[in-house]
Amino acid sequence: MTFIGDLVAVEWDFNRFSQATKVGVKRKENLEVFFQMARLGKVDKPTTIVDRHGKLLVWYLPNIFFPGCMVCFPQADSYFGYIHGLPVGKIQLCCKRPEDSSGILQLFNLACPKFHSPQREGKIWHGNSNYCPWNIYAGLKSKFHPKMTLIYELIYPPGLATCGSNCAICFFKTT
Amino acid sequence: MQSASLKLPEVQEWLHQSEPMESLANAILSIVHPDLHQVGFEANQAYEASTESDKPRDWPSVYSGIDIIVNRLTPPHCDAGGTASSYDLLISLGEGHADLHLTDLGAQLKYWPGTLAFLTGRFWSMLCLNGRGGESGSCSLYEGSSP
User: Fold this and answer.
1) Does the structural domain B65-142 have CATH classification 3.40.50.150?
2) How high is the ipTM of this complex?
3) Which residue of A43, A51, A72, B36 is 20 to 30 Å from A159, comparing CA positions?
4) Phi first, then psi: what are they for B48, rounded to 5°?
5) Segments making up each domain of chain B, as ranges
6) Contact status, residue B111 vs residue A70, Cβ threshold 8 Å
């Protein structure tokens, strides 16, 4: 299980909660008596909420998408237009594992089991999706708790990042 | 079963335009929850294999359902088709400020544009898209029937 940001644990068991709230079962008005409902209040930073056994309940990633990217999505082709000038197939996600002392970047090849090629296109990020989200999470990277260990950092291959930070998305786990 | 609106040209155009965002969400899901991504991907493949249409299905997401809500306040509700092992994905759209209330957790999540939240569909949630600072919307992706 991959955790990210602040980790908040509620005191109850999610499986029991699911049984009490499943379809066809009248929802108890005093549910919070049985499950000691947390009062988490306002949440505005990356947060993972789990139950007492570590079962993931909520994964909250504020501002993960670069706002300019969101606003411009309908015109995504023009926003990322300069990428389209690159040869097809040159754009690949990279995976840098921090435990690799060699510092050599490991290319995510097309056979990587964590990514599947779009059926109609045949290649990752090929065609209409021919860009990578290098802006997302770049600004949040430094805000993570020191007990978080970076497990994945998806970046652009060296030389292809032209807009400042080349960090695309980072995934952390608790230590 | 496909939604009838899926055949509308404007819906097809919207799906086409939103494909980059969906690809992003797919990539994130493949790391956040690889099993769910794999199941959704295989379900899409199985569906395509079972249909006889020559026209490729223009469905960009590994989730089977997409809802869009804009500038609305929803009542507290949960995903009636949600299961304990799957997660719905909510993506905040637009430019305005909004809030996502998780009633069962007493949590009020800031729902800024570009925010992404995976949550189990068993929780009651309420979206407050009141358009402060501009229009705000939410894209909900889920497996199975509409939440």
Assistant:
1) no
2) 0.83
3) A72
4) -65, -35
5) 4-50, 65-142
6) no
